[in-house]
Amino acid sequence: MSFHKLGLASEILRGVQKQGYTEPTPIQSQAIPEVLAGHDVLAGAQTGTGKTAAFTLPMLQILNTTPRQHKHAPRALVLAPTRELAAQVGESVRLYGEALRLRSTVIFGGVGIQPQINRLKQGVDIVVGTPGRLLDLVNQRALDLTHIEILVLDEADRMLDMGFIHDIRKIIRLVPDERQTLFFSATYSKEI
Ligand code: AMP
Fold it and tell me: 21 in ligand 1 pocket by Cβ < 6 Å?
């Protein structure tokens, strides 16, 4: 199986090539066509399986090929359990989307909020962040989630373990009902 068969556009494939990836991993070959088809995806994937690219590549392609409906508000939101993972996903979004004109930012707590507010004011397409600080920004009216088209929950089981369930429920109430949801978890307990 090659990346070319997954339905990815040439500008996205160039980003993949630049990373030196020759073949998609199993989670990538399974998830990418489904995401591109606009479906919700519930995936089981451990860290190290290439799951980040499995949602990031098709997400970038969708955002790059469909017109934005609102001038300023973000169109995609990726929720991650820790600042490290948020930063890592943010870096992948930046790298894979280098050739595209999409803007992204990473949000997490434990650092000053003002630079994050300033960045959001400039307008971004993709926000990657941890749930608590994202809600702080919504409460301060610095982050508008009412135009989110794609919601990604990355490492959902870890977010649950870390007690983010209430924050996640709140965030889900803030994003439009009509959206694409991509759910990634290493484990699937009853709670998940
Ligand atoms: P992840 O599971 O998303 O944390 O990815 C684990 C590592 O695999 C990262 O360092 C990626 O750069 C790398 N990776 C992702 N997709 C591929 C691929 N198709 N071929 C080779 N390496 C990859």
Answer: yes
